[in-house]
Amino acid sequence: MDTKEILKKMTLDDKIYHLVQMTTMTYLKADGTDIVTGPNSTMKLDKEYIYDVGTLLNLVGAQTMIDAQTNFLNHSKKKIPPIFMQDVIHGHRTLYPVNLGIAASFDRQLAHDVAKMAAYEASLDGVSVAFAPMVDLVRDPRWGRVMESSGEDPYLNSEMAYATVKGFQGDMGPHNVAACVKHYAAYGAAEAGRDYNTVDMSERTLRQFYLPPYKGAVDAGVKMVMTAFNIVDGVPCSANKHLIKEILREEWGFNGVVISDYSAYEEMRDHGYCADRKECAYLAMDATSDIEMMSPCYANHLKELVSEGKITEEQIDKAVLRILDLKNDLGVLDNPYRSVNLEESKRVQVGPEHRAIARYAAEQSAVLLKNDGILPLSKDIKSVAVIGPNANTGAIHGNWPCGGKIEETITVLEGVKNIVGDRVSYAKGCNIEYDSTDESMIDEAVELASRVDAVILCLGEHQDYSGEGDSRTYIDIPDVQYKLLDKILEVNKNTAVALLAGRPLTISRLDEKAPAILDMWMPGTEGGNACANLIFGNAVPSGKITMTFPRVLGQVPIYYNAYMTGRPKLEEDDFNRVRFTSSYLDMANSPLYPFGYGLSYTDFEYSDFKLSADTMQRGDVLTASVKVKNTGKYKAKEVVQLYIRDLVGSVVRPVKELKGWEKIELDIGEEKEVKFEINEEMLKFWTKDMKFEAENGTFDVFIGKNSACHKFASFELK
């Protein structure tokens, strides 16, 4: 369909309202009462144009979409159908693990496949745009939205962003959805880990670490970009001309739709950046932002700004045309109901095929943090107890559940029962609330633990304690959970902890006490089955953490790719104080678990690490290789990781940077040579003159199991 012809038939008012996004629920009543009493009363929208907004959000179910779209088109003057958008963050109805968990799989194909699955389910419910992937780089686990991210590394984040966009969008067929990467930019750097808080960093840090994941999504062809709530260099992202117009559009060539976050235009007044809504509208449009989500700055002030000559109608035309082109790409202009299908939705969603994908994703995402020989448990065990506040609840599927339901989520208790049947028993032990001090249930749990062969202790946080607005100053498990653990260990040493949380936790005490710790994150709809499969050896853990786990909160922010310092503490694992070095008086510098860390039920031996040459000319390729052998008793997967250190630069460089990985599967006794190609592009950084290029010099290359690997070889770029 010719979108330019559609644009020609639209009045200025039509165009302005096409830039407005409202909630779906306000369009469900045919008499329009919700419109009058809802957004019209609070946002002062013109009733004549309220049925000509361009997009709707927060869709719930196929029938809702059909009803809202029918009602909308019955009232609309121009009959241009809206598209429906939804926060399809880690699944639609069938939920896979939170994104921090998916990233821990180090599996690009898995990231693609779960997004494809979610897109299929969402499309059947009438969703055309997923507000995902969220690719904000995060270094502070206090921030609740770490559960949506891929962690602290720009390369890993970029790769996962690329794969996820491809999974959502595919060939933009009827069962694909447009992806909307968010939150542009640097939202994950909120000071003190407090949501919506200030972000302040240099242009170099922004470009070196925080922008690459968004660029990865753009390179994958993402259709939309959502701006962030925060400021960057003192300017709110919603109207940050440098970020949106200069970098995103002009430098990266993005010509898709830019949308604000919820009421973010209006909130620029609270930032103290705009005096009123009119100025908010002017600055957002001047920055080439297109859709205003749930605030009335555009609707109430763009026409006035055009009449005053501050904004041109051509600027508005370009924004509207981008939205119309997206609708055309999605096929909505030809078929307003697109691929909504009530019967197919009922058949597919949370069906066996999608449950299998979600279960596999949860198994691949889990990280074995500690194992003193406890795991895996034998499936022939005579008796086992599942204990803990996260043991018998479906509230482990993760925050941002979209259409997922707690009652459809497999609990850990159910998962264990599916393997050992009636040989399992259960006690809650304590409550999950972070401020709970109730110890009344501990004795019952201890008595049960004393008469079984093994205990699976399900600890952690409630799923609602990690997510938007869920920042925390205390990120350990509550004391009552430690009291439960201590008393159970007194009567049964054969205890494994299943940790369920949406973020890294400061669990030094847990690491010291528990014989085994399996981090399941928030594992999704099939979390209980996946947890049981891992605990009983039907699956072998292979996940690696993508955010550093601090020993104590005082180390935060802590991340592996920090800049080198002039007074490093050479033995960072040493608790002894070394005065006048960059160190703590009372704690080691090193984390509890470093980036890329994760154990297995088997052992992997690395040997014969070498480089193909000790010099590399510009434009050439150098090969780094290592032999990896499975020396244990289980067929298993290992994530072989490549890191590079630039020893001298025109600006100080990080101690290490992830530059590649390969996830391999080895049978018992099998050995494989893993090779990585190193090229000039991998050595580039933002130099002193703010040029993205590689500089001549010496580079150390590391290959190992995690970012703390020490074996290296060196080469010189000439």
Strand-helix topology:
Layout: H1 3-8, H2 12-18, E1 20-23, H3 33-37, H4 39-43, E2 55-57, H5 62-75, E3 83-86, H6 99-104, H7 108-124, E4 129-130, H8 154-169, E5 178-184, H9 203-210, H10 212-219, E6 224-227, E7 231-232, E8 235-236, H11 241-251, E9 257-259, H12 268-271, H13 277-286, E10 292-293, H14 297-307, H15 313-330, H16 342-348, H17 352-365, E11 367-371, E12 384-387, H18 412-420, E13 424-427, H19 442-449, E14 454-460, H20 479-491, E15 495-500, H21 508-513, E16 516-519, H22 527-535, E17 604-611, E18 615-616, E19 621-630, E20 636-646, E21 657-666, E22 671-679, E23 685-686, E24 692-693, E25 697-704, E26 712-717
Parallel strand pairs: 1-2, 1-10, 2-3, 3-4, 4-5, 5-6, 6-9, 12-13, 12-14, 14-15, 15-16, 18-26
Antiparallel strand pairs: 7-8, 11-16, 17-19, 19-22, 20-21, 20-25, 23-24, 25-26
Helix pairs in contact: 2-14, 2-15, 7-8, 7-17, 8-10, 13-14, 17-22, 18-22, 19-20
Structural commentary:
- This protein has 718 residues and is of the alpha/beta class.
- The chain folds into three domains: 3-81 and 176-338, TIM Barrel (Alpha-Beta Barrel), CATH 3.20.20; 345-535, Glycoside hydrolase family 3 C-terminal domain (Rossmann fold, 3-Layer(aba) Sandwich), CATH 3.40.50.1700; 604-717, Sandwich (Immunoglobulin-like), CATH 2.60.40.
- Helix content is 30%, strand content 18%.
- The protein has an eight-stranded parallel sheet with strand order 9-6-5-4-3-2-1-10.
- The longest helix is centred in the middle third of the chain and has 18 residues, at 313-330.
